[in-house]
């Protein structure tokens, strides 16, 4: 599977900006593979949805508020989402569109209101 297959447009007003209060009231989409039924629940209902042999994997990663809009030398737009700073000062990032970027390519982020002027 390619990560590009996971890209989709999501309206900004559907992206949570703050955690639900109380947290257990956060929305939960349940898909039943056997019946192909989709149910809209809340996380307070999670225990009702689990079977004894189910495996629950919790993702406790946090997203940095570090999105950079840059330009390639050709003028093409690139969006970078910074993930984690490496020990050498470089950053791991997700880039869109990633399939066109080349290793070592220099991007101009001077239009981004941050300390950065150039991303390599």
Please explain how this structure is put together:
The protein is mainly beta and about 120 residues long. Helices cover about 5% and strands about 30% of the residues. The protein has one helix and seven strands, in the order ββαβββββ. The chain has one helix at about 45-50, and strands at about 25-30, 35-40, 65-70, 75-85, 90-95, 105-110, 120. The strands form three sheets. Strands 3-4-5 form a three-stranded antiparallel beta sheet, with no helix packed on it. Strands 1-2 form a two-stranded antiparallel ribbon. A hairpin with a 4-residue loop joins strand 1 and strand 2. The radius of gyration is 19 Å and the shape is elongated. Residues about 115-120 have low confidence and may be disordered.
Please give the radius of gyration in angstroms.
19 Å
Shape: elongated
Distance between the termini: 27 Å
What is the beta-strand fraction?
25-35%
Helix/strand/pairing category: mainly beta
Mean pLDDT, rounded to whole units?
A: 83
What's the helix-strand series?
EEHEEEEE
Count of separate DSSP helical elements: 1
Low-confidence stretches: 114-120
Biggest sheet details: 3 strands, antiparallel
Strand order, biggest sheet?
3-4-5
Helix content: under 10%
